[in-house]
Write a structure and sequence with these properties.
This protein is mostly helical. 44% of the residues lie in helices and 9% in strands. Helix 2 packs across helix 5.
Length: 171
């Protein structure tokens, strides 16, 4: 369901047989807000980078990293490949050309995304209700979020990442 809309609570018995056995969720903007998660992960990546490369302190901000990533809109590649290239460019423009550092940043960023997620308050109760009703829960995403690293992933019978199957889900 889109944010702001609620799933129906109970259906009349005549409609009960129409209730789907499988309920799949998108992740960003459905289970959590995207930008707070992304900004939190980028901010923590910058903090960790400044610990590793003190000379870069104060030269990168979340907005700067967003701008580097936006420069690659329309370029072919996975989300991860594009983030890697945007980090590489941001570092190079600051005179930091260290083998493996952009990859390290991507790894930190991917891990920090998990710690930056704040589920909407109605997500867990709704999933409890759906599970009690016998539904099979899953996630389908066009993104690359490592949902399997979240505690809530135990609820999902399946997770489909568009990048892994080579097809985008409908918007």
């Amino acid at each position: 369901p889109r944010r702001g809309r609620r799933l129906p609570r109970r259906r009349p018995a005549s409609e009960a047989r129409l209730t789907p056995a499988v309920v799949s969720f998108d992740l960003d903007e459905t289970l959590w807000e995207f930008m707070p998660m992304m900004d939190g992960a980028l901010g923590r990546t910058i903090e960790r980078l400044e610990e590793r490369v003190p000379g870069i302190a104060g030269t990168l901000t979340i907005d700067v990293l967003h701008a580097y990533r936006a420069e690659l809109d329309g370029v072919a590649g996975t989300y991860e490949e594009l983030r890697l290239e945007s980090f590489r460019r941001a570092l190079a423009d600051r005179g930091v050309v260290e083998e493996g550092l952009p990859r390290w940043m991507v790894d930190v960023w991917m891990a920090e995304r998990v710690f930056s997620v704040e589920l909407h308050p109605d997500v867990e109760p709704e999933m409890d209700r759906l599970e009690r009703a016998g539904h099979i829960l899953g996630a389908i995403t066009n993104g690359n979020f490592p949902v399997e690293r979240l505690e809530m992933a135990r609820r999902f019978a399946f997770v489909v990442h568009a990048e892994r199957v080579g097809e985008l889900k409908p918007a």
